[in-house]
Specification:
This protein is mostly beta strands and about 450 residues long. It contains three helices and 24 strands. The strands form five sheets. Strands 1, 3, 5, 8, 10 and 11 form a six-stranded mixed β-sheet that branches. It has a five-stranded mixed β-sheet with strand order 2-4-9-6-7, with no helix packed on it.
Length: about 450
């Protein structure tokens, strides 16, 4: 089943007796005990607090390059202003909004948020929705609003309205009551300095490659976009408890692409949980490229993203949304979510999750922009900073330790990486929840 989110690994507790849950559509209850064990979302440390308005007259202003934090009430509709100066009239504006419900909230598959951008006349520039889907589990969901340059509507400088709406479709008494936290991170992409491609690329290799083989290396993910753990090609392992979401980021240069498979380890117990594990891919401005989820019976199972084309500027002219998302270089986010409903059927875990990541394609120079994006460097994969690479522990404490060293990869996608060991530390497999956060300004 297509939908999205997380990973997990570990030994399993004695199974809990539970009714078999129908595929993603029956049973909307969360399991507070399991949800309470899951770490919360890691908001950007420098986020500014902002409260949206109920109308355009007093809507607060959003500036590209800054990260904002607010909240959205039940059945709420909040408005924000996005101002484009004359110098930005030909730029494309992206406004990703991440909604984070309480871990003990009860949600349905169709609950979520809608984000739209409108011009001064109320004309809609874009609509986007994000829903909780088959996992039936409260977790961060992100919808991306856009004001694209070069379209027939919504052109020129001025003030645009960003409308964030909460989609509460549950019946009375079963809905997701309470406010949801919000994280908003606007981005500006400048126009090209010279005319570029105006049509989508032609055919590309869409064959599904064999998943990477090899022993997994322990690497827990971060708890948010700005705390996403950097990784490259390899086989990685993490641990998730029901209700937990983890974030990774993969730097992709122009012409490069990522393929990913997540495997949920086996567990004791009997039953079925739809949408048990969700794997999603987001682009550098947090636009969803693809997501997939799996149903779970306690037997080890994989879920894979669909084969996607290499990153190209011209992908924005393609029809499929999954292709249009791959429109610029930068950090691409792999997000894993483990449904909190596993706790009622197979126990509280933690659950073993193996993430197999393949990065291929021939890197090349990208299009020339007429200015700098905001925030600076968001569409650059070269010199992205720290890429985590585990190496064996020499004379370590048994078989379950791994030394993680930070490797600075300059010119990552251009094949000119120079490696510099910055530090290392031992991570016990039973402590896979401990975090290292590599942070940068969000995209």
């Amino acid at each position: 089943m297509r939908r999205h989110r997380r990973t997990a690994w570990g030994r399993y507790r004695a199974p809990l007796t539970a009714a078999i849950l129908a595929l993603g559509l029956c049973g909307t209850g969360a399991f507070p005990a399991a949800a309470a064990d899951a770490p919360g979302y890691a908001f950007s440390p420098g986020a500014r607090t902002v409260e949206g308005a109920t109308g355009t007259a007093d809507a607060p202003r959003l500036d590209a390059g800054r990260v904002y934090r607010g909240s959205l009430p039940e059945h709420g509709r909040l408005t924000y202003d996005l101002h484009l100066a004359e110098t930005d009239a030909d730029a494309t504006a992206y406004v990703p909004v991440t909604a984070v419900p309480s871990p003990d909230a009860t949600v349905t598959a169709t609950d979520g948020i809608r984000v739209s951008v409108r011009d001064a006349h109320g004309t809609a520039c874009s609509y986007a929705t994000a829903r909780f889907g088959a996992a039936l589990s409260p977790h961060p969901v992100t919808a991306l609003g856009k004001r694209e340059a070069g379209k027939a509507l919504c052109q020129g400088a001025g003030t645009y309205s960003v409308l964030v709406e909460r989609l509460d479709t549950g019946s009375a008494g079963t809905g997701s009551a309470g406010r949801w936290d919000l994280e908003i991170a606007p981005v500006l992409e400048p126009r090209l300095s010279a005319p570029g491609p105006s049509e989508a690329p032609g055919a590309w290799d869409s064959a599904t490659p064999e998943p990477l083989a090899g022993a997994p290396r322990d690497l827990p993910g971060g708890a948010g976009f700005t705390a996403a753990r950097p990784l490259g090609q390899g086989v990685w392992r993490t641990a998730l408890v029901p209700g937990q979401t983890q974030f990774y980021k993969v730097p992709l240069d122009w012409g490069r692409r990522v393929r990913a498979t997540a495997e949920l380890g086996g567990a004791q117990g009997h039953g079925y949980v739809g949408g048990a594990l969700d794997l999603a891919l987001y682009n550098p401005v947090r636009g969803l490229a693809d997501d997939a989820s799996l149903g779970y019976t306690g037997v080890r199972r994989p879920v894979s993203l669909v084969p996607l084309p290499p990153v190209e500027y011209a992908n924005r002219y393609a029809a499929p949304a999954a292709v249009t998302a791959l429109r610029f270089a930068g950090d691409y986010y792999l997000v894993l979510h483990l449904s909190d409903r596993l706790g009622g059927t197979f126990g509280r875990g933690p659950y073993d999750v193996t993430l197999r990541v393949r990065v291929d394609g021939r890197a090349h120079a990208g299009p020339g922009y007429a200015g700098r994006p905001v925030p600076d460097g968001v569409f650059t994969a070269a010199e992205r900073g720290a890429v985590v690479a585990p190496v064996p522990v020499a004379g370590g404490s048994g078989g379950d330790g791994t030394a993680l060293k930070l490797v600075a990869a300059g010119g990552f996608g251009l094949g000119t990486a120079s490696l510099l060991v910055l530090g290392g530390w031992t991570v016990a497999a039973r402590r896979a929840q401990s975090r290292f956060r590599a942070q940068k300004p969000t995209a």
